[in-house]
Design brief:
Number of strands: 16
CATH topology: Double-stranded beta-helix
Helix content: 10-25%
CATH architecture: 4-Layer Sandwich
Bound molecules: succinic acid
């Protein structure tokens, strides 16, 4: 950490475990070399942040498409003008904050998103930060016995659990609430295709371990979910309007803090498809 291996960007870590701000970059004007360095910083730091960006939805989407194909969220519709962009909106009257549980986006889909980008448009005066946790560290710090057990099992990841709570997300644009069921088994430990490192792939959407009884898997999963988010593995991002975060769903989890009741927060999210099922 701290060694500057980048020629076109300045990378400033924001915590000891993961997360870095990329300084002095205008995402509207990126040549190939700078984009490749940003991608390297994303792989190295797992979540990267940009400040003071000013992008139209067309420009934001064009930037998103440089990362890969767009992943569509199964439960909510995107903007009418840009269906690939999901508006995450909590108004003064809403009671449900989208993403207010530790999770890796779309882990319940067959090919989960590799990356998510979030662009802050309107924020409460205080609060509404997002936490991130490092799933390489979560894996590395498990005992050899637990690693061995988890390496030979898969987790059942379920996306339909929060649907009941979506009734509190009145300002978001739901697709067939309650009808879409997405459940998928993925390895409990996955290997990152770029870094080749192993990470824990058990999060808020994981409800069972394959070939374990429910009575056996629930306490193991509870342990893993608590272990995965110890403060030393985390960083916290304080948003400003115009900030953009891009996180790697293959090696992180995140949590949207809901501490701004009675205030408004509006973000635009683009998720980028993975290139393969987790392995
Ligand atoms: C999400 O989980 O995608 C939303 C995170 C946030 O709003 O901070």
């Amino acid at each position: 950490m701290g060694k500057d291996i980048y020629k076109n960007i300045t990378v400033k870590p924001i915590a000891g475990s993961l997360g870095a701000e990329i300084l002095d970059v205008d995402l509207k004007n990126l040549n190939e070399e700078t984009f490749n360095e940003i991608y390297s910083a994303f792989v190295d730091h797992q979540v990267i942040f940009f400040r003071e960006q000013s992008l139209t939805s067309d420009e934001y989407l064009a930037f998103g498409k440089r990362w890969g194909k767009i992943h569509h969220y199964p439960y909510m519709k995107g903007l009418d003008s840009h269906p690939e962009i999901l508006e995450i909106l909590k108004t003064e009257n809403d009671t449900y904050a989208f993403g207010n549980v530790w999770h890796s986006d779309g882990s319940f889909t067959e090919i989960p998103p590799k990356a998510t980008m979030l662009y802050a448009l309107e924020l409460p005066i205080a609060g509404g930060d997002t936490l991130f946790s490092n799933m390489y560290e979560a894996y590395n710090t498990l005992s050899d016995g637990m690693k061995k057990t988890l390496l030979s099992t898969r987790g059942l990841n379920v996306g339909d659990q929060p649907l009941a709570s979506f009734s509190g997300a009145k300002s978001m644009n739901q697709k067939d609430p309650g009808k879409t069921q997405v459940r998928t088994y993925h390895p409990a430990i996955r290997t990152h295709p770029d870094s080749k490192k192993k990470s824990l792939y058990v999060g808020g959407h994981t409800i069972e371990l394959e070939s374990f009884t429910k009575d056996e898997s629930v306490p193991i999963l509870n342990y893993l979910k608590t272990h995965a988010i110890i403060p030393e593995f985390t960083c916290r991002f304080r948003w400003r309007e115009g900030s953009i975060a891009i996180w790697d769903n293959r090696c992180t989890q995140h949590y949207a803090i809901d501490d701004y009741a009675g205030h408004r927060r509006r973000m635009h999210r683009i998720t980028i498809m993975g290139e393969e099922s987790p392995y």
